[in-house]
Amino acid sequence: MKVVLQHITKIFPARGRGSNGGTVAANDLNFEIPDGELVALLGPSGCGKSTTLNLISGLQRPTDGRIFFGGDDVTDLPPENRGVGLVFQNYALYPHLSVMDNIIFPLGNLRGKDRMTKPEMKEKAHEIAKLVQIDELMDRKPAELSGGQQQRVAIARALVKMPRVLLLDEPLSNLDARLRLQTREEIKRIQRETKITTVFVTHDQDEAMSISDRIIVMKAGVVQQIGKPQEVYDSPANLFVANFLGTPPINVFSASVRGGRLIIGEDSVLEVGGVSDCEVWAAIRPEGFILDERGPLCCDFGGLEVMGRDISVLSSNQAAVKPTVRSIISAENRVDTSSKTVRFSLKPNKAFLFDKTSEERILFTTARKEN
Amino acid sequence: MENRSAKGWLYLLPAILFLGVFMVYPLIDVFVYSFEEGYNSASQTFFGTGLYNYSYILHDPYFLQAVKNTFILVIVTVPLSTLIALGISYGLSSIKALRELYQTVFFLPYVTNTLAVGLVFMILFRKTAYSDGLVNLLLGLFGISPIDFIDGPYWAKMFVLCFYTIWVVLPFKILILTGALASVNEEYYNAARIDGTRPFRIFRKITLPMISPMVFYLIITGFIGAFKAYSDAVALFGTNLNAAEMNTIVGYVYDMLYGDSGGYPSYASAAAIILFAIVLTITCINLLISKKHVHY
What we know:
The complex is a heterodimer. By secondary structure, chain A is α+β, with helices and mostly antiparallel strands. Chain A is built from eight helices and 21 strands. In chain A, helix 5 links the parallel strand 7 and strand 8. Chain B has one domain: Orthogonal Bundle (MetI-like fold). Chain B starts with a helix and ends with a helix. Chain B is mainly α. The longest helix of chain B has 34 residues, at 61-94. Chain A binds chain B through residues 57-59, 78-81, 84-86, 88, 90, 92, 94-97, 105-106, 108-110, 141, 157, 161, and chain B through 185, 187-188, 190-198, 201, 205-206, 209-210, 212, 295-296.
């Protein structure tokens, strides 16, 4: 089921006296989630991603705008008539019911021609339980399950009535690191098997990048960029997106463009064709640095972190926004740790320029390979 | 380990001492008195030991009346007051406007003196030579002839007593239940709403089980409280409860000790022990049932 948001705005009224206006949690959202895709709503806390999810589920009504599922306008439908399954951040499993009863709970609400008998419900529940691999835990109470198992039960409960859209609110945030890796693969697998359009909310860019077909990056209620994870990573639309995606984070320098060259501090580091002289933010991915004795970018050497496959070189530069410039180079490189400075040349496809005030991306061309 | 448990006992000592002196010892004492015939607290003498005291009070029509009254009171007021409180708290938790005002109003009886409230009830229900009472005036509107609720037939008096008891115990129950309802996580309701659960099913399948520990707490304390009822009856019918046929077990115990027919600590002790046995049994049954139905 295709999900379309048109000019969706959500304003929470101001609370208390003296405050005016209100909080704009979603500001003119326009996007389309193609049928059968797994889409991540990504952003820092308070960016409106959970609100967006609640708007899609119907738990909240938009202040303005329309929401469509396929061809149907569902904006005015209450949640129960939208056919959505929602997995809550802390699962909201009914603690007094067994796993089986939790899963069949939504089925018990069906009426009319959809009404099911108890054995039918149980059969259906077993089918779903098998899919999420909890069919051996059916008699347990939620409190007797691990976090990962509870998560699966919550997904099973959301899936059992075959929703048109599956929504997951921070599905992995309550799991430990190892379980998180495992569960995100699991979500991907379940989504692929059921082919249900799935939207999940996360603030963890790793999570979003690894399993989603498409990510929607949000900030302060405004969509920043929509695209395939790799596209967004390789070509961030603005400084926020560049900063938000990637671990370790991108290195940002306060720089300028003079005569078609990018100047960081006093070093002319990169040819940037087609950009007129101006002040810019230059953002360089950690993997965009090449250790090069005659490289144009000179930084003060700070230390090394060896991580097996890679080495990360910590250095500092007057022009950098953060005190540490982190670059990742292959472990085969030898770094002279006695030296006070370290020199890099840059990969042009890993360096991005952003307007100093609007922070929007400035595209540039490179005539030849700098390295 | 030895040292640690010694320390633990030391910390518990003050509480144990007080409980021992003021609870365990009197309890044992009462138990002993109940088997001593004609015990006299002034001369500390008695005639003999045996089950005579029990046999006497079990054949005393006043005691049997008191037991009957107490049981009716318990069976009527505990379920009714809990149900009404549940309804009111559910209503309170569903409204936003004026909720605090209503909460205060419902809580008022709790801070009001029992005897004062009893007086108000008397005025409402009593039929005197000069007036039929407010309730009778209302009944008169429906063409019902006036009933004397305070000095009249047994069922009318029992009705007033039950009505009064429910009214007095409601505030505390409402307080506890609104708290319990407020502590149910909103997400459960959202989850149920997404799945299209109808309000009644949400209440029965989610709300009620979630607050079941509190409901059972109220039922258990309600039973105990109702079995120990006394002051309510006094507030309504005065101190001569035997004559009014409105005595309760605790009232009987009091009468046996200090009432006009008083001065019989042995009988009082036996009655108190019987009450204790009844309350203990009912509470155990309650706990057994609650274990089956409360899921936390």
